[in-house]
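pasting for ref. prot 1 ->
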Amino acid sequence: MFPAIRGIQAGREFYVSMCPLRLIPKIFLFDEDELAPEVRAQRTLNKGRLPALTRYIVDNPADYVFSALTASVDGDIRFEGITDSGVGMRAGQICISMAARFLINDGQHRRAAIEQALKENPDLGEETIAVVFFHDVGLARCQQMFADLNRHAVRPPRSIGVLYDHRDDLSTTVRLLAMRAPMFKGHVDMENSTLSQRSRKLFTLSSIYYATQSLLQDLKISKNQSQELAEAYWGAIDSVIPEWGAVRRREMSASEMRSDFLHSHGIALHALGRIGNTLLRKSLSPQSWNPVLKPLSTVDWSRSNTDWEGRALVGGRVSKSRQNLTLTVNYLRQHLKLELNAEEQRVEDAYLRGES
């Protein structure tokens, strides 16, 4: 028996209940992975997703959040309301046959993560998760439920994920950069990960995130140091890219600058982050790497510069592929007279041979 609330969708009854986490691995099953897709009612389990989901629960026992599981019950279900009329008809308990089979339609990765988390922290077992129960009326219906539940699922833009993520120190650093640093303040789209042609913003929060992630990669520094170094570095970059300042002074529109130049696009910021990481590994003092960055003021960032074709541009369009990022980094390293690493040299040689 499960305490439940009864509802109606498409003329069919369904039930919303709360289930202790300790019962989740015991009663909810997956389709067998070896079955062909056409005779399953869900995707196969992607085990690569489980460690991150498990760590999320285990590392945040006081404030993790999991949405409801959706399951079909292949067996007898009987609902007993608190009363025979009125509001009490919708609240009560469901009685499910012991021989019934429970099949998850949505949430199989959450179920597997819960199972793993319970092994590390059994105390989680008394906590609960919402479960929506439907009566199983056959494979075709279960497959349709899976398709319908995922039909309109849309992953939120990476920018808004950074904006709302208060667990990740880097997200916090980047939010503060976007809101406080002179070169970014007022010119960052905090919600979208792509800018429309008429947008008045210069950057997206996600592009600053990935660029700053590259900048600070593998540096053994504190959160406060990260904030200070990131702001100092992007300030140094701002000083050698005059167009950024021209937009702030309203001498040029943001849309005009984005259409004519590359330096505010994600691939350029990411490449500049990689360059900065090289400099920060050598010294954390801005006084030592500022002179190295000065030659960036002579880089022709205009999209009409044919040097960018095949590197940051493919067929005149900005490309964010890993290879194009590396080739863009290489171009800047050569301009700054910085040595390429082995992988960068391999990609550069292939490009020069015309193999890219």
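and prot 2 ->
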Amino acid sequence: MLDRGRLFAMARKETLQLRRDTKSLILAFVLPVLLLLILGYAITWDVENIKTAVLDFDNSARSRELVDMFSSSGSFSFTHHLSGEAEIAPLLERGTVSLVLVIPVGFAADLGAGRPAPLQAIVDGSDANTATITLGYTRGVIEHFSTRVQLNARRFTPPITVQSRVWYNEDLKSRNMIVPGLVAVIMMIIAAMLTSLTIAREWERGTMEQLAATPVSRAEIILGKLLPYLVIGVIDVATVSLLGIALFGTPFRGSVLLLAVLSSLFIVGSLSLGIIISVIARSQVLATQIGMVATFLPAMLLSGFMYAIEVMPQPLQLITYVVPARYFLVVTRGIFLKGVGWDVLCIQGIIMIVFAVLGLGLAIRVFKKELR
């Protein structure tokens, strides 16, 4: 049976220790903001201002019209106008340009006669992701140009008109999906690292003997140590979310209350994981290293934040089911971008509850009030 007096006395003791520990305060309040700023600005899947060179053998009004359409698309930046094929390889080898557009002689004549007009696009494939996106943009511009030429020449209306509409992320900005994901990743890392130092700190400072001699139960010790960090975690979620909205323009369409509740459950589970690491390691340095490996790598690589889970090898896909950040990522993106509620996030919500209860139970079980 928990004693409220002993529980809050334990929480007050941990708060006083935390206030005197400058490194932990920096880890708690400064590191989340730094991670958001660094990762938020550094990670992007948008490809803009693609450096492009053009080799125009035709030098006609039509070829210049095509080049103008590439420039006006907003994705391409023409930096070089070449005079011969020998100039292509050195530019691509040095990475000076990512795309070379080659317009052959007779391009305008073929278009005027209604014949297929060949066009060559040479892309630097050393970065496969950028190359794929560049080719997609290139095809889009060329298809738009081809349609306009047909309409001007033959004056017909295409039998099928496609009108596409993107929901939830209308501008297709990668930061709109990165920032909510960072909330999940950052909190997984910070929460586990904060509490991974708590029990280890007691052992290193020689205060575990005093704890063992008190009538405080194991549950009261663990819960008392978690309470201050739970408050810090909620503050960090609010801070990171508000900064993400203010700095990156990420939309927030959902319920603040639902985000707060599910975030609290996730934080409790992550804090409990840190406690377990601290109990096992019994050294602050070792606990920090284990905490980083156990949280940072899975949260970044196996949660669906950096890479889609569907394209991972089957064994890795199975491992992702035990990564809590995978489910919290769905929560943050769903609440931020889609504005969905409990009816949609109920499965993830139940998993958050299980994560919190299971983590807390294991932390209490593995902690022993014994001197070994």
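The beta strands are 50-56, 76-81, 99-103, 120-123.
Residues 4-44+173-366 form one domain.
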